[in-house]
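[Q] Does anyone have a clean structure-token version of this?
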Amino acid sequence: MVAVQPAKPIARRPVVRPVAADEEPDGPPCPACGTPNLPERRFCRLCAAPLHAREQPKPLPWWRTVWPFRRRVRGGSGRALRRTLLVLAVVGLLFAGFLLLPARRYLFEDVRDKLGGTAEISPAKVTASSQAPGHPATAAIDGVTNTYWGAPTLGSSLTCVFDKPFRLVGVMVHTGVSKEPQEFRQGARPTRADLIVTTADGKVHEKALTLNDKPGPQTVRTGISDVVSVRLVLRAASHQGEGRPIAVGEVEFFKRT
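[A] Here you go.
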């Protein structure tokens, strides 16, 4: 046999495959660059931006943004505690409002008294527990100060009754037998008294008065609603003596208009 030299290996020639044409993407455009993409793609083929944004959680209600409710509830954790705290807070606010209601109403009416107008109101009836001769109870509401109700002793009272309830904003008292200083000093006049006001519901309001020992009107602010009667009880007087009754020249009442 004749020896044969092995042949050199011949490398296989590369086979050129035809390039398939790109399919026309029919999916949504990229939100970042606007390039069209296939529907099944998750990221843009050009800029790699996410094609499907995550759904944002719904905003919390306003009450969930206040401590201790500002955290998102997960799996019921702490839900019972937060509900209990919310119920206690509501109950506390209602209780505080109930306690403060009279004070708020008083403040509201007081502001209305100061901003509103006033007008004099006359009682429908006036009586006295006792009176000196010639100085009846009616002399205290006759509109003049040169006549007066004369009380024989301390403890005597003057009661004025009104025909319908009203808001009493103030009482004006004239003490003494006259507004003239010389005549004023000659008679007895009250220096302390109790003002007892009764409302339509039967409630009684009492106010202690300290009266200046000088002629002229003295105003007392009251601010009481639904007033039906007012009683003035004399507690102390100056210049008392035999034959000198305690003189109340005039009592005037003012309502809110």
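[Q] Thanks! Anything notable?
[A] The chain has a mean pLDDT of 83.
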